[in-house]
Design a protein that fits this description.
With 101 residues, the protein is mainly alpha-helical. Helix content is 69%, strand content 0%. The chain is built from 5 helices and no strands. Helix 4 packs antiparallel against helix 5.
Length: 101
Amino acid sequence: MRDLIRNFLTAWRLPRWRWALVAAVLSDILGFGVALWPPAQWILDAITAVVLFALLRFRWPLLPALAIEVVPGLQLFPAWTLVVAALASTENPKPALSDEK
């Protein structure tokens, strides 16, 4: 558990992870407002997917999140936020450069 938190905090220091999490949270919040109008929801999810793929590159867990967001009724589940947070917490931090040679 400590490793997950440490990995998340390490990833949080990188701007791309911060922007990805902000984009995911904003998409999930705005998704509540357009949940009753599916075309707007689809456009929002398409834009979110493009932004997240641009920031994080291709990652398989983003595809199921997109599928969840397309299913009516499931779009109220904050899939984007949870997937980005999970990816950030499982991101392997770069090994620290040691002074030993």
